[in-house]
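As a warm-up, study this chain.
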Amino acid sequence: MSTHFPSGKGLAENRKWFVVDAAGKTVGRLATEVARILSGKNNPAWTPFLDMGDHVIIINARQVIFTGSKNEQKMYRHHTLYPGGLREKSVKEMYEQKPERIIELAVKGMLPKTKLGKAMAKKLKVYADGEHRHAAQMPQTIEIETR
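Now compare it with the structure written out below.
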């Protein structure tokens, strides 16, 4: 008796497209489920060293919520690589300027920090409003439960 072992051939052609509505969802709980889909852990043939995941389109990123006091206290930080170049933005500033970036950063933080994780992150598309431009891929709508 032999066991089926997936190879890297034909993975890109068999990927599905999913649409997730983020309106009223909690950022962290939404990001964990999306990261599972992107990495392919919901697939029965999941293999740790292959990109088995599907494409995910997130709409209504502007309507996502944070629980607790994260709205006032959470800061997004990055460094410009120049002396004294630490830059900080609060959650409110990120909502005003780039609401898509909030979900992108949350999901990318839950993916592996390798070439494989970067390939998984490229399959994530986030839009601030309800429209997206991927209708030709015929995405399926999935509902993600956040308690």
